[in-house]
Amino acid sequence: MKITTFLMFQNGEAEEAMNFYVSLFADAKVVAVEHFGPGEPGAEGSVKHATFTLAGQEYRCIDSPPVHAFTFTPSMSLFVDCDNEEELERLYAALGEGRQALMPLDDYGFSTRFGWVNDRFGVSWQLNLP
User: Fold this and answer.
1) Which of 12, 63, 82, 103 could make an SS bond with 47 (beta carbons 3.0 to 4.6 A apart)?
2) Which secondary structure element, helix H or strand E, spans residue 91, and what is its range?
3) Which of 8, 126, 4, 5 is CA-nearest to residue 70?
4) Which residues, listed in sequence order, are joined to residue 34 by a DSSP beta bridge?
5) Which pLDDT score is estimated for 98?
6) Can you give the CATH number for the domain in which 114 is found?
7) Domain boundary residue among 63, 92, 112?
């Protein structure tokens, strides 16, 4: 048995988001991408199914053909323990670019330094310096 985080995008952003995330993390790569073709239920060229890794952890994503009344929520987030403050600040700046922070970088007592942001795709990231 294996459990994998699955990210559903609704605006044809899956491939852009996946490539953005892969560019930010070490030991990250796109493993496989399958696109919708002509006559299939999704927009031609959008992601039917993709697999990628971040820091060795596997993720899957799609561009959902049906439009749903929901999207990502901060109640489900990706938690990253950073190795150093420079890494934390780099990720916080990149992931939070142009977005309002849910919790700005600070010492909240449970961590040396912590920040929480929603990225431009709506995915929520908790960045921690243990």
Assistant:
1) 63
2) helix 85-95
3) 8
4) 49
5) 85
6) 3.30.720.110
7) 63
